[in-house]
Amino acid sequence: MSTGKINVSVENIFPLIKKFLYSDHEIFLRELVSNATDATLKLKHLTGIGEAKVEYGNPFIEVKIDKEGKKLHIIDQGLGMTADEVEKYINQVAFSGAEEFLEKYKDSAKDTGIIGHFGLGFYSAFMVAEKVEIITKSFKDEPAAHWTCDGSPEFTLVPHDKTTRGTEIILHIAEDSTEFLEEHRIGDLLRKYNKFMPIPIKFGTRKEALPKPEDAGEDYKTEFVDVDNIINNPEPAWTKQPTDLTDEDYQSFYRELYPMQFEDPLFHIHLNVDYPFNLTGILYFPKMSQEVQMQKDKIQLYQNQVFVTDNVEGIVPEFLGMLRGVIDSPDIPLNVSRSYLQADGNVKKISNYITRKVSDKLKALFNENRTDFEQKWNDIKIVLEYGMLTEPKFYEKAGDFVLYPTIEDKFYTLSELKESVKDIQTDKNGKLVVLYTSNKEQQHSYIDIAKEKGYQVVVLDSPIVSHLIQKLEADNENLTFARVDADHIDKLIQKEDSTLSKLSDEEKEQLKGVIENFVPKANYTVQIEAMDSNSTPFILTQPEFMRRMKEMSQTGGGGMMGFGNFPEMYNLVINSNSDLAATLLKAEANAQEELVKQALDLAKISQGLLKGEELTAFVKRSFERIK
């Protein structure tokens, strides 16, 4: 028997581990199962290169609860340790066995998937245990060893009669951590952190139905047998080559990742790179709503199949945070608790790679089956538009596949759209005007006026459209976007020939004064414009600039923040060539007020602005007129 003190530089290392090393005590199970996996993978590598003269077999890791004895066991069939190795690797805190192993076999062990990097993972056991035992037998022909520590720097190390290869960790669970003696709690943790570990993990048994015998009668009762309950999938889809997977395999894996998600994803992107860094994974595009929902808990980060976090900020570009899936890389640097990313050049390279891979996939989908891509556009556009705004490298490639649908459900890329409308929608100053609607139903009357002129109207209805068109205008000379209700159509696309007014300048000023007597100046700016005599007499428009600045402010427009508090302002455009304009000039004052009020309400209806008490009064007034 030997006794001694663990070689640590801080006397109170265990309280420090318990309080500060890990953000959540439940991490202990992940670390101990990871260590067991390391030990098994190391043995696999050594037997593969002929350095370990033992049979590798079909090893598994077992997690057992002894609720009565208040103990938790983690048992592996890996390479085990000699007494000297226990002294070296356990008693010298932060001396990582995995690091030494990788250094020694760095050429041949490159792809062995060794998980441990820190040497502190084992000591996470003391976050939940008042005493920890290690019973271990090396694959080498040496006696087994039994190490015990009660959470102080004191330990004992004695021989043991264990004859089978591998290591058993026994945690004597502390009174404040008895939740980790509950089967459902341990099961949940294993499924959370170790669901895709590369070595099978046994946790208890489960009932499995025996096949019904061919000669069984109608009164046959199904018989069940106890089988090992393997709680993980050691070979998840992302560890395989895309050529070895079918579409159904990808769909099946999606359901495994998100069992409560009932809609299938639209498509997937398989990530697989081994230079200049190692990264594998699968990203899925689910159906998106119109909201920019940054659901940062949908993509899972793994390191050699060990779950690390569902916060992938920094690794996955921000706009792809709305996707779902898995990223696995041994080259993503983590701090000692594996819980947070460290600043590192590799992280930016990985982010750039993912951006490029997603861009290439979208372009391929667009080129291979444009019709299918167009049908999915409304379900994915919010991600792509957000990517154009936030990721310069994505924006550079987006022109090849980002679409601009028209109200007739034709889909154009920006270059195609410009080519399609340039002959008719270029104004007298040589500027190409793209007309758009953010709500086809609400802006129907304005769309109808544009269609009568032969103009195309595209549908841009995402909440970030104001930001997007601002960027597109800045990057495309002589291109401007105008919402169809920003002004009357002849002002939106001004041509050389202008419509003559039936009213003189004096009559127009008189008409303006009449109308201003009956509309609130705080909300409306009255404009008298000469339009076609058949055009609507009163039109409400919202100036493009002010509306756009307000929208950008409401969705986080940085320097536009002040615009969000501006009151709603509208231009009330009066058609000087309409019959109503002539009637107003001739009418008595009380009749003028009634006509202006009725016409303004009709204009407000076309903008969806007449509501509540005003709408009730309008309906009542209209019915009285037709009695």
TrEMBL record:
<keyword id="KW-0547">Nucleotide-binding</keyword>
<dbReference type="InterPro" id="IPR020575">
    <property type="entry name" value="Hsp90_N"/>
</dbReference>
<dbReference type="Pfam" id="PF00183">
    <property type="entry name" value="HSP90"/>
</dbReference>
<dbReference type="GO" id="GO:0005524">
    <property type="term" value="F:ATP binding"/>
</dbReference>
<feature type="binding site">
    <location>
        <position position="81"/>
    </location>
    <ligand>
        <name>ATP</name>
    </ligand>
</feature>
<protein>
    <submittedName>
        <fullName>Molecular chaperone HtpG</fullName>
    </submittedName>
</protein>
<dbReference type="Pfam" id="PF13589">
    <property type="entry name" value="HATPase_c_3"/>
</dbReference>
<dbReference type="InterPro" id="IPR037196">
    <property type="entry name" value="HSP90_C"/>
</dbReference>
<dbReference type="InterPro" id="IPR020568">
    <property type="entry name" value="Ribosomal_Su5_D2-typ_SF"/>
</dbReference>
<feature type="binding site">
    <location>
        <begin position="96"/>
        <end position="97"/>
    </location>
    <ligand>
        <name>ATP</name>
    </ligand>
</feature>
<comment type="similarity">
    <text>Belongs to the heat shock protein 90 family.</text>
</comment>
<feature type="binding site">
    <location>
        <position position="76"/>
    </location>
    <ligand>
        <name>ATP</name>
    </ligand>
</feature>
<dbReference type="InterPro" id="IPR019805">
    <property type="entry name" value="Heat_shock_protein_90_CS"/>
</dbReference>
<keyword id="KW-0143">Chaperone</keyword>
<dbReference type="InterPro" id="IPR001404">
    <property type="entry name" value="Hsp90_fam"/>
</dbReference>
<dbReference type="GO" id="GO:0140662">
    <property type="term" value="F:ATP-dependent protein folding chaperone"/>
</dbReference>
<keyword id="KW-0067">ATP-binding</keyword>
<feature type="binding site">
    <location>
        <position position="338"/>
    </location>
    <ligand>
        <name>ATP</name>
    </ligand>
</feature>
<dbReference type="GO" id="GO:0016887">
    <property type="term" value="F:ATP hydrolysis activity"/>
</dbReference>
<dbReference type="GO" id="GO:0051082">
    <property type="term" value="F:unfolded protein binding"/>
</dbReference>
<feature type="binding site">
    <location>
        <position position="35"/>
    </location>
    <ligand>
        <name>ATP</name>
    </ligand>
</feature>
<feature type="binding site">
    <location>
        <position position="167"/>
    </location>
    <ligand>
        <name>ATP</name>
    </ligand>
</feature>
<dbReference type="InterPro" id="IPR036890">
    <property type="entry name" value="HATPase_C_sf"/>
</dbReference>
<feature type="binding site">
    <location>
        <position position="31"/>
    </location>
    <ligand>
        <name>ATP</name>
    </ligand>
</feature>
